[in-house]
């Protein structure tokens, strides 16, 4: 398996950028869970290109997913749930020359080596971020199922092009719902400055990166395990699989490495309700996990996205037929910044990983 | 499974801090690989406590592993390789009170919830870093097998207590062999300052964290896959499973998020040998992977370790019987800084993950 | 996972009898393998209903699969290959009453318990043999890829309604290609008697079962492992997953239990070519495996299929609303014998399992 | 993985016949389950050689397992449970010549090819039935945990050397506890005749095979899934992994293939307690599963064991150095019949597989 994720609920992604469709199979959601396709489509629309402002490609995708199986009468059947999204607007001609001159920062060259030249080069093939439309759909369902149990998984743009989203909110609290904002940062002033940074990069034929923060609030304490089923491991494996991600922090992340132990520990506090196993913590520097297991506080992670490697300005690459350095301008329509569109994707990805972790933890208890 | 890792070569860790032994099973290494138990023991000695200087606990462990199966005539048989390390020096009495008053920053409370109170609380049980002795052994074998194919996996202390190891070396190059140094940083001056920082923390009954960098050089291009088998995913899942890790960067990591695309791309360069599929890159900002697949350049990662949560100075916690806040001083022998001992562990962990990725990639080609 | 099979090449089946489609995802075939969709469609046509004689339902399915991903330029890309078959001719009304009165011998009642009533009851939902169209497609590809390496996987009807297909052919040899026969038995006389037995059962509103034999010839020696990756385990897990299978023999199967050791062993014979590791065997009572690993002789298995549980004649069941015994006549169109249509399905299933085993064995060798 | 089994509870076997030890790791049992090591040792003693009568080898093993991890205060911790059994009495010299002259019916030759000559040839190495001592231990725990929930998993000798154990008992009922009998058949007369058949074979330097039946009674209805998680698939994959097994039937097995549908269906009957979802069946021809899911009736399976391939009388094999046919008499101590000792092993194996299936089914429900 190479495009599958999950232990108790297995997600497999399929599709190429310029093939007939992208899609996914979930094997298999618990039976009897409500499915709201319209809400899923709305969530996916936040990721879709051509809807946003300065940062979005002009490519218009018809991202309405078709559910092929696993849903009956509006509820999951408990057997595999498959869905696809047709690729409606693909202009393969844009990419014809790229088989010979790999785009800097893309998987064109590594993919060619990996697959012996057999992979689909059009638009990056299975390497394309287009495939994440299917992940976004799978996560939209996970978000619905978690929400029904009181769990919110929300993300925000924490930084774009060096512009930060003001002070971070209290990590003991969930993030607010930012899904209505075109650029989902907390601060509207910061968002405006971010848009300006994106516009400036685009004007120069360039691109910018940024940071996304995600928080999952409302999870029960006790999910995970001390080694390879840590919250950090399971959530990390999902988030590090997103295209363009270069780094990941949990809780205070790198800042923890510069503290003393007495400053970094989250001290247990008496449980409000009287059940000491529901003890709180005075702080949430750990980002919701101790010993790899959820504390019941929000799970907090931050992801660094690199700037879009496809830029209009001239770069150099190698001509694979002549083995000579040649100039390249990457044709096609490309986002000058993927970060705003990544926000719903990060929510989807995190929700899916945490749902799977929850199911796995349950699986380890005898009924 | 909760303590298992790997796709083509599966590692399972077992054992508790104060139980009879810790150990591992590898199911199963390729047949016919040479095994050097003495070299493995030397590698493990770098992680063992009681050998180092200021930063190491006084607990002396007899870390000589016993190989139980899977090796015959000095070579792997191709069937499961099991090994154990006996626990020789465990003083359980130190930990008796902790079932009632969970240590801040440890998995005492989350573990109790997760396992319904059935887990072994002595010394943290399976949560103990003691279990990583077995991971260190498994990785020692992976290091040997990779070295036989020209791959070096080496780590260094990049930072401790806010003291950095001077300028980072060229990411196009491997790290030097630092295994002979008690504190394996590149700069001896920086190492001395790090030791001073550790001593200062210990003198105040406190602890410090730090950052470890690891590089794997010599891997072939073409290992990995664009989604859930990315180099970042597979290596990340392993590294995020190490106790005390709070963050992870590949290549330039968070710094990438602040660059423009034209500044961040690693531009392909003509192949020295003439085979364009062996094209190089002018830089290695990506840390050895494009599209989730190795480029042939060194794979570079950095890990943030939090300060040891066990500190001698007084903290507060909750008494689980009374649900009241109470003071706590964590008894026992604890490292004021785990980072130096983590260096061989990070090398082990990374080597194992990359070996498994290599085997998985091979598995996807028809013989 | 509940509808997934495979270690190195993972197959996931999806779909319900009366939903939009059935299909599969393969994650992921080795790159660069030729795909012949027309040959796959011809293979699937052998399984499709409405094409055969007495034994086949009148339901006409449009079984032409649509490949959604993973194939480019007529070859596998090495990334997931998804395909679907639309459900064209479903009359759900036939099945409406069955939610209340479970059909004897079907999974109606166990499925309702398993999925808490959420599963799709129409036509059996995901329990339907309709889903095996997708398995048949996946196997058709495996058959092509094995054939390109000189491996034939062929099945025959060994028995129907108590009528046997004459003497079994020499197990040291492959089966002939019977794909052109409407009822693929070796003996045409036996086939005629089998058809008569099916007709007789149908005339009485009843059904008959039978036995299918499958042989895979041309596999290399050395595939498998002594415990849970035995040829028998991996092939058995696949074959026992086919609907209506109640028993499975390898080689001489139950007859081995009645022999003495000296009569049952297949004695090694000198290798014709001179390489003693290519030693033959004087007989093939073991069915191509020793110690769970292929010998290089044909892998031989026999499968018992129960008679179709859906019969027109009156049976009794329970009314789930009143908890009273009630008579039932199963409506709809049902095969009086599934065995002839099962032959290409068994070939598909066996080919897929053996291909996956081959890839897994390769994966355990260091490149 | 090649020596691992299980989805929710993963068992890995390790060890070689003449190495330091055999053992297993379970990753990981649910927390809080009682462990009775003495009862496990008694169960293992039924499988151990040197304890029985005519059919047992003279090799005396010290089969007392040492639990290394995962048990604290007499209960499972929820983290990996490892155990080993030391190999006390191994005479490797017996086997020295066999690397050159493979024993007929063993994995000597296939193993040599599979592992490129690196596997341990002494006593069959990891191919040895000795490894099943560890499986027997793992199953002994599964038997205890199932028994605590009212499930009995019991086996009997149904046939040895052509001597059958009289009429099969009612498949709607559990088997009685036969653990006190040296040859656990229902009929003492049949058992005496079986012993005579074994003695006769041994007297002629030969061996006999037989059939074991296993029944699991008391399982809830609703375990399994319609495709690759069928009861038959999951239980079958385990049972077909036992050395010497050549065939497997569920319920009436091959006899079903010779019936008509109206004769073979198990007709639902009203539930005694009034809850129609607890409907019974008038018969149990299916062996406890419909649509791959448990009915609540006993799960019934029968296994064919081939005769021990190691026989004292002369056979022929190939000399791998000369590629010539040579006579061989297999030295060492060998059971003339493995079937009596296989009975507790089959119970262990079935119990483990059904426990894992139960846990997997639970895992697919949202808590």
What does this structure look like?
Four copies of one chain form a homotetramer. The first copy, chain A, starts with a strand and ends with a helix. Chain A has seven helices and 18 strands. By secondary structure, the first copy, chain A, is of the alpha+beta class. Chain A is 24% helix and 21% strand. The first copy, chain A, has one domain (4-251, 286-363): 4-Layer Sandwich (Chorismate synthase, AroC fold). In chain A, a hairpin with a 2-residue loop joins strand 5 and strand 6 (75-76). Chain A has a five-stranded antiparallel β-sheet, with helices on one face. In chain A, strands 9-8-10-16-11 form a five-stranded antiparallel β-sheet. In chain A, helix 1 (37-47) crosses helix 3 and helix 1 (37-47) packs across helix 7. The first copy, chain A, has helices spanning 37-47, 108-114, 132-147, 188-203, 231-239, 261-264, 339-363; strands spanning 4-5, 10-15, 21-27, 66-67, 71-72, 75-76, 81-86, 152-160, 163-164, 210-217, 245-250, 268-269, 280-281, 289-290, 293-294, 299-305, 315-319, 324-328. Chains B and C meet through helix 7 of B and helix 7 of C. Strand 11 (245-250) of chain A pairs antiparallel with strand 11 (245-250) of chain B, so a sheet runs across the interface.
Q: Count the helices of chain A. How many?
A: 7
Helix content percent band of chain A: 10-25%
CATH fold name of chain A: Chorismate synthase, AroC fold
Chain pair with largest interface: A-B, 117 and 117 residues
Can you tell me the overall shape of chain A?
globular
Poorly predicted regions of chain A: none
Q: Gyration radius of chain A, to the nearest Å? A: 21 Å
Class by alpha and beta content of chain A: alpha+beta
Q: Characterize the biggest β-sheet of chain A.
A: 5 strands, antiparallel
